[in-house]
């Protein structure tokens, strides 16, 4: 009896040691993540003048690839000052019959220059306004805390309300797609239609693998190569070194301290409430969600939805297939107008 008991204990001991190592590793990861996401200040801010200057140099270099804006507007809202650029359409309305301007909402840490490949083509549709998202690295300046989805919608609503056009066709990329949908759910007054390009937290959850891969990128004291690696991962493995927009994104990730609430995943019940024309462009090789599941959710729940699945595109689809995107948006707006 004693011999059998000792054999059983011997079999358990290695497993117990392995379990202790796993728990210790998980505790270390939890400690690192807690340290990375701690929030000592209530609003987004730069880590110092040198970091801000590095971002501004990258922003200026990337911005030089855009057509020249005809107007730069700073809109004061209850939550801070929002930077808006207006670009004049080259043949406004000739391709789609649209007189309503487009308003572009960029992805996380990317700001207006992320639209470099898209803007010249979109200007064939109509005038275009772009926004640097409040609370993100860019030219907008957050002054008060943003603590909820409702407040995320409110600052954008106040921005649109201050601009001359009565309505806009919104075009949102990644987190900008979530921002557009969130606005439609809370303050849809100035929205004529929406095109969301591989939006996150809208039609599907983010995979665990992507969340794990993002943790090193969120730690500013780790080498630049780690952030470049994550950005390349989201772009289907494309190299990002010495690319002006990628350098700007990396500088923002490194030097800007986000203090925004985690976006709420849009439920299917809430999607069914959106009584607006919506074009959903889903990248088939995106690492931000299960693309086919996301496309099916969009088809099933958007009352006035049009869904386009781009099978070979990564999450960087706006830079990979700009001509196809503008053709789909132009056709969509023509049908919606």
TrEMBL record:
Q: Does the keyword Hydrolase apply?
A: yes
Molecular function via GO = hydrolase activity
> Where does the source fall among the domains of life?
Bacteria
Keywords from the UniProt entry: Hydrolase
Query: Is the keyword Hydrolase in the record?
Result: yes
The chain positions of domain AB hydrolase-1 read: 101-233
- Stated name of the protein: Alpha/beta hydrolase
């Amino acid at each position: 009896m004693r011999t059998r008991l000792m054999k059983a204990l011997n079999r358990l001991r290695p497993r117990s040691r392995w379990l202790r190592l796993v728990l210790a590793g998980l505790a270390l990861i939890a400690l690192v993540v807690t340290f990375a996401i701690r929030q000592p200040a209530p609003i987004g801010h730069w880590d110092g003048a040198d970091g801000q200057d590095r971002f501004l140099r990258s922003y200026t270099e990337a911005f030089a690839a855009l057509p020249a804006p005809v107007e730069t507007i700073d809109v004061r809202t209850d939550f801070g000052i929002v930077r808006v650029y207006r670009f004049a359409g080259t043949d406004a309305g000739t391709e789609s019959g649209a007189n309503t301007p487009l308003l572009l909402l960029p992805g996380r840490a990317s700001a207006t220059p992320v639209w470099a490949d898209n803007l010249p083509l979109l200007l064939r549709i109509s005038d275009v306004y772009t926004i640097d998202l409040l609370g993100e690295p860019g030219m907008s300046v957050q002054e008060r805390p943003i603590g909820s989805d409702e407040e995320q919608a409110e600052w954008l609503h106040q921005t649109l309300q201050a601009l001359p056009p009565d309505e806009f066709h919104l075009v949102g990329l990644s987190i900008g797609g979530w921002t557009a949908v969130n606005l439609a759910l809370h303050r849809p007054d100035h929205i004529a239609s929406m095109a969301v390009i591989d939006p996150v937290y809208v039609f599907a959850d983010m995979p665990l693998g992507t969340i794990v891969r993002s943790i090193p990128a969120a730690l500013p004291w780790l080498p630049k190569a780690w952030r470049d690696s994550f950005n390349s991962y989201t772009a289907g493995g494309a190299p990002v070194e010495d690319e002006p927009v990628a350098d700007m994104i990396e500088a923002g990730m490194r030097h800007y301290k986000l203090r925004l609430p985690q976006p709420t995943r849009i439920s299917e019940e809430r999607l069914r409430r959106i009584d607006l024309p919506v074009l959903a462009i889903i990248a088939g090789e995106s690492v931000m969600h299960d693309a086919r599941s996301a496309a099916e959710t969009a088809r099933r729940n958007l009352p006035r939805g049009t869904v386009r699945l781009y099978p070979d595109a990564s999450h960087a689809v706006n830079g990979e297939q700009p001509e196809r995107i503008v053709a789909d948006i132009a056709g969509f707006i023509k049908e919606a107008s």
